[in-house]
Structures are given as structure tokens and as C-alpha cells.
Amino acid sequence: MPIPYKTLFLLEAATDLVFEIKRLDVQSTNPGEVYFWFRFDKATQQLQSLTFVAMDSRSDEQYRTFVQGALQFGPSAGTYTPQLLGTPIHLHLIVPAILPPAAETALFGYFLAA
């Protein structure tokens, strides 16, 4: 079942997508109930929820820390470094931030199962 959402950030590599969404159907003062980060593996079509820890920004650079890894990005590109493997994934920013159909289907499945 589709949920109303807005993609806030979408970063893409040949193998992965990393993105943040805002749920439009949830009215809450708790950001953890409204904003969500995900990593989508294009090969396996698997969606991984990223557990948010912290954020920072300096100049044009944004930094996000998750239990699963760290993300750094600017106006056109970024890097996601998984916690376990530690091999950086180089990403480019997609504007406008519109999820591909496979990622959107996985997103809807995630919230349906939750």
C-alpha cells in the first residue's frame, strides 16, 4: 500500500541508492517518526533502514552518522562508508529526488511490514 512521502535527498552509485524521505501522513514532533534514511542495493533489490545517530553540516557539506555507516555529501556528490566493510561507495546527488520504481516498491513494502 503506498504511503505519502517526499524524497528529501537521493544519492546514487552504480550499485546502491542512499536516500532520505519525509512521511507526509505522520504528524509528530518526534523526527524519528517522520524522517527516514535508507540504503537500497540495486542488485538484490533489498532495502536497508539506516538507524540515524547524528548530523552535522559545514559550509556546503552535509554529514550523517548511522549505526550502519557514515554519509558525507555536498551539492553534487558524496560518499557512504558502511560500518562493517568500510569500503566507501562514491555517490552522486540526483535532482530532482525521485525514487526509481524498484526502490519505491521496496519502500512501500518496508512500511507495510512495519
From TrEMBL:
Source taxonomy: Bacteria, Pseudomonadati, Bacteroidota, Cytophagia, Cytophagales
Domain of life: Bacteria
Protein name (record): Uncharacterized protein
Organism name: Hymenobacter mucosus
